[in-house]
Design goal:
Order of helices and strands of chain B: EEHEH
Mean pLDDT of chain B: 82
Structural class of chain B: alpha+beta
Strand content of chain B: 15-25%
Largest sheet of chain A: 17 strands, antiparallel
Number of strands of chain A: 21
Mean pLDDT of chain A: 96
Radius of gyration of chain A: 23 Å
Low-confidence stretches of chain A: none
Helix content of chain A: under 10%
Number of helices of chain A: 2
Shape of chain A: globular
Number of strands of chain B: 3
Order of helices and strands of chain A: EEEEEHEEEEEEEEEEEEHEEEE
Strand order of the largest sheet of chain B: 2-1-3
Number of helices of chain B: 2
Largest interface: A-B, 25 and 18 residues
Radius of gyration of chain B: 11 Å
Low-confidence stretches of chain B: 44-54
Strand content of chain A: 35-45%
Oligomer: heterodimer
Helix content of chain B: 25-40%
Distance between the termini of chain B: 35 Å
Largest sheet of chain B: 3 strands, antiparallel
Structural class of chain A: mainly beta
Shape of chain B: flat
């Protein structure tokens, strides 16, 4: 018996060299707002549908596959976590700097030019409860990838005003015991909504001028829509088939935000006129910790009048257009953490 | 202080460029499929010459 509070999560901030080789060196340990461990679900099948047995009942079990549920890592926004999420979910990553702080620039990889085709970088995930001789749980999941993420910025106090959660997938390959000694919980440099230092969407500056103080909340999300990764030769664990690749499908990038309505609000005008323009939201904690999401060309798909806590608001859904020169979106992160999404030396 | 530089390889793998690591400069390259590579071992020589010598 163990308390779930004893659960320790760690995962590699460095990428695996391939989907089947764990990265056990560049691992950090983090807290997680999701209190559940990552379940492994081996699936058995039976012969109930087969005729010839003389009855309709099953008589035999067969090992089928590891059906790994998606797993959510949910955290308050920090420079370290956002750098990790964006790097592993979008794929084309650069890092600059020979000492802290490091600057990461990340854009969505293109299938035609990505060195690993439609596959994103893979990471390893460690979960432990009382590791050691009589561990309750001690395993490393190999070949994990980020399926999607949600970024939420809210009109509220505290760390919960800026959160990011990512959905992860795993092939089913694992090793137990993990052989990993998790480090102390990483020190993260968190953001909250008061640290938003730039917020301009489609020509409207929500920090200064007439639209200043009118911004309520923003939700952005990314989805990689991975295709199932079972194929001839994809591999096995404990006699069960596992997945051997995660290839992105039709990816989607969604942005919604809510602003207060006032005389002369431009959101509806921009919608009617089909105005497009860049959208930038930046968090700046200090010179060593910042995050910026620069959407290259945004239009407004819908703008609906609404009510948020008794205030007349407008909920705007964006359409993020692909710019032929600058692509879809650029994430820029400055953080003290080195080696994020970098290959093992 | 000027931004640090990094090295990018073209999507075709036939060219390496040294570029300043700012979002404004990197974005068009990355959007076109360029990706980061380690610095060449001998930066004194032109990178193109290094690749031709291989």
């Amino acid at each position: 018996m163990a308390n779930i509070n004893e659960l320790m999560d760690g995962w590699s901030y460095g990428q695996q060299t391939n989907i089947i080789t764990p990265n056990t060196t560049a691992i950090w340990r983090h807290t997680n707002l999701n209190t559940k461990p990552w379940a492994k679900v081996p699936v058995n099948e039976d012969d109930r549908a087969e005729v010839g047995k003389g009855h309709e009942f099953p008589t035999q079990l067969f090992k089928s596959h590891y059906n790994m549920p998606t797993y959510e890592i949910s955290k308050y926004c920090s420079s370290e976590f956002l750098a990790w999420v964006m790097a592993f979910s979008l794929g084309n990553v650069t890092v600059a700097g020979s000492a802290s702080p490091y600057s990461y620039i990340v854009v969505p990889a293109l299938g035609a030019t990505n060195p690993t085709g439609l596959e994103l970088p893979y990471f390893s995930f460690v979960q432990q409860i009382r590791p050691g001789g009589s561990a309750v749980l001690d395993e490393i999941l190999v070949g994990c990838a980020i399926k999607g993420w949600k970024l939420a910025i809210k009109n509220s106090p505290g760390r919960s005003s800026a959160t990011c959660s990512c959905e992860c997938v795993a092939t089913g390959q694992y090793t137990t015991p993990s052989g990993v000694t998790l480090p102390a919980v990483a020190t993260t440099h968190e953001f909250n909504a008061s640290m938003v230092s730039a917020l301009t969407i489609n020509g409207i500056n929500y920090l200064t001028g007439g639209s200043g103080k009118q911004f309520v909340s923003l939700d952005a999300s990314w989805e990689n829509n991975f295709r199932p990764g079972f194929f001839p030769g994809s591999g096995a664990q404990d006699g069960y088939q596992i997945q051997g690749r995660f290839e992105w499908g039709d990816r989607s990038f969604a942005v919604q935000f809510v602003v207060r309505v006032q005389s002369g609000s431009l959101e509806y005008t921009n919608l009617i006129n089909q105005t497009t323009g860049p959208a930038t939201i930046t968090f700046t904690r200090d010179a060593n910790n910042s995050f910026s999401m620069a959407i290259q060309k945004m239009a407004f798909a819908t703008a609906e009048l609404s009510n948020t806590d008794g205030i007349a608001t407008m909920q705007v859904t964006g359409t993020q257009l692909y710019d032929p020169t600058n692509g879809l979106v650029t994430m820029s992160i400055t953080t003290p953490q080195s080696g994020i999404c970098q290959a093992a030396a | 202080m000027s931004a640090p530089v990094i090295y990018l390889e073209s999507p075709q793998g036939d060219e390496i460029k040294e570029v300043q690591a700012t979002a404004a400069i990197l974005t068009p390259y990355l959007a076109a499929g360029w990706h980061q590579v380690p610095p060449p071992s001998s930066p004194a020589k032109p990178v193109a010459a290094l690749k031709e010598a291989k």
